[in-house]
Amino acid sequence: MCNLPASCPSRRAKASPFRFLYTVQHTNLRNVSAKTLLDYHFRYNIPAQGTNGLWPLKAFRDREMTMNSTKTGYLILAGLMLVGVVQHAWYWPQLPERVATHFGIDGKPNDWMSRSTSTIVFLALQLGVPVLMLAMTSLAARVPVSMVNIPNREYWLHPERRGATMAHMSLMMTWIAVLTSLFLTAIGHLTFVANTTGNGLNLSVFFSAMVTFLIMIFTIAGRSMWHFRMPRQ
Fold first, then answer.
1. Which of 2, 145, 169, 193 has the fewest CB atoms below 10 angstroms from its CB?
2. Does position 183 have pLDDT exceeding 80, yes or no?
3. What is the C-alpha separation between 134 and 136, in angstroms, rounded?
4. pTM for this one?
5. Do 30 and 104 lie in a common domain?
6. What percent of the chain has pLDDT over 70?
7. What is the Cα–Cα distance from 68 to 202, expressed in whole angstroms?
């Protein structure tokens, strides 16, 4: 029984590596699951690295995993945004009319805003910055290759690889947006606590959160730089 897409010729015919190769060349392979591709790979010993213009099985497996991970990132990001909104609603009645928004190296406040203005600014940052990051990735898929700044861009943005490259960039930026949203939520919490208790900003927690955030960002950036290296010939 053929478990490839409906466009696969003679679905009732016995599955064969020849029909598999035909399907690889003539159908939209985003509809073919990685499991199906790997099943054919192991059943008929079709090389995992495609030849003669065929899409590699590993590329489809990686792309499916990438898309699933990106969707997970979207869900987590949406949850963090909701937490940010709830956070502001929870602390709003507890905040003073003048809210400390900036703190010195000693943790003491040195700049203030009105409660309504600070809420608008903080909430705009928590919601707007991650959304802007995702929008930049979406825009990158529509601009000329010369405007996309990645290593070896002529190779990775070749029409045969552009789709997979954009998927990886979307994944990278989604998780950077998640980390940014989490960091901003943590900073917001520290600021709210400082204003409701009058004890100043907890610098040890603040610097721990900032260092962790930066390490994670540089880790993601480093992995992407490694991903976009030139493959061995």
1. 145
2. yes
3. 5
4. 0.69
5. no
6. 70
7. 37
